[in-house]
Amino acid sequence: MRQKPILIIVALALLMFAYQNCADTVGFSKIEKASGLEGPVESSELPQDSNEETNLNDGESDNNEVPPNDSEDPPIVIEEPSDDDNIEEVVYNCETLAPKIILEKIEFPAYEGCEYGKNGNLSRLNMYVQARVEHKRNLVLPPNAILCDIDMATEKSSMYYDDHLLLTLNKFLLATSNTNYILDNLLLKVPNTNMQEPLYKYDWNNMVGAKWTTDRMHNIPYCIGSKSGDSACEIPQTERTGSFIVDIGAKQIQSIIGLSTKSNVYEFQLVVTGDNDNDCRSSAFSFDISATYVVPPIK
Fold first, then answer.
1. 227, 197 contact by CB (below 8 A)
2. Is residue 36 one of the residues assigned to a domain?
C-alpha cells in the first residue's frame, strides 16, 4: 500500500518533465526574426502582390505615362548637303567677279489669327506648335545672277508678333525669335563647308505638333553667324512691340546660295507660329534690301 504514493509522485514528475521538453521544441524563431528585423530581408520574403499596382489593365499604365525612352531629347535631324552643293563655286564667283547692286523692298502685311485645322495646321492645343502662317516674297535678280550679300534695313524700327517667328531665305533660317526651335531639333541641321556654324532649314512638317519648351533659350533670338560675329539680330519678345533688326554676314548668305537650287529667284519667308489663341499675328513690316550679286559669263 505504501508504494502507491511513490508511484504517483514519479508519474507526476515524468509528466512535468515531458511538458517542459515539449515547450522548448515549439519554435518562434522566424516570428521573432521578422519582427525584430534581424539581418537583411530577402526579396522572396516580401508579399508577392507588392508589384501588382504597377501592372494595371493588362500591363498598360492607368495614366498613359510616357515610356522612359520617350522622355529623352529627340534625335538630331540632319539634312546632308545634296549634289547641288556649289558653295565653293559661289564664293569664288563672288570674290572674283565685278559686283552689282539692286535695291528692292520686301513687304510683309499685317496678319491676324491662325487658320487652325487647315493647310497643314493642327487644331488648337496650348503650348504646342500647332499652326503657322507663311508670308512669302521673292527677290528676282537678272538671269544667271548669283546673290552674294544682302543688307536689310527695316523701314519701321519696330514690329509686333505672336507667338514666335522665323525669317528664312530659300527655306534656310536667317533669324528666329526662339532659339529653342533649334535646340529642340525642330529645324533641319545642314552641314556646310564655308563656315564653322551649321545652317538650319525650315520645314513645317518637322515642327508641327511639337511641344514648346520654355526653359533654356525660349524667347531668346538667334541669327545665323551670330556666334562667329559675322551677323547680328535684334528681335522683340513675343507679344511686345520692339526693334527688329537683322544683319546677316556675306559668308552665311553665300553658303545658303551654294546649297540652294540654282535660280535667279530668291524666296524670303516670314513664318509666324501659334498654339491655341488668336496667334500667327504680326504687324505690317518691310525691308529695304540692298542685294549684291554677280553674273558669271555663260559657258
1. yes
2. no
Asked if residue 244 belongs to a domain, the reply is: yes
| Residue 275 · residue 124 · CB < 8 Å | yes
- 62: region left, alpha or beta (phi > 0 left; psi from -120 to 50 alpha): alpha
Could you tell me what percentage of the chain is helix, strand and coil, using 3-state DSSP and rounding each to the nearest 5? 25, 30, 50
**Per-residue exposure over 35-64, b if at least 16 CB sit within 10 Å of its own CB, e if not:** eeeeeeeeeeeeeeeeeeeeeeeeeeeeee
The residue segments making up the domain with residue 186 are 81-294
**Cis link prior to 163 (omega < 30° from 0)?**
yes
Question: How are beta strands 161-162 and 245-247 bridged, if at all?
Answer: unpaired
Question: What is the tens place of the pLDDT at every residue in 115-134?
Answer: 999 999 999 999 999 999 99
The per-residue pLDDT for range 237-251, each reduced to its tens digit, is 888 888 888 899 999
Query: Cell 508641327 appears where?
Result: 208
CA–CA distances in Å: residue 42 to residues 30, 35, 39, 90? 13, 14, 9, 72
Question: Is residue 201 a part of any domain in this protein?
Answer: yes
Bridge partners of 270, per DSSP, are: 135, 167
Distance CA 271, CA 273 (A): 7
Q: 131-140 and 188-190: which strand pairing?
A: unpaired
- In the chain, the number of structural domains is 1
Residues in the chain: 299
Phi (first) and psi of residue 214, to 5 degrees: -105, 10
What does pTM read for this prediction?
0.71
How many whole angstroms separate alpha carbon 223 and alpha carbon 173?
8
Q: Is 64 part of a structural domain of the chain?
A: no
Q: Can you tell me the distance from the alpha carbon of 97 to that of 226, in angstroms, rounded to the nearest whole number?
A: 27
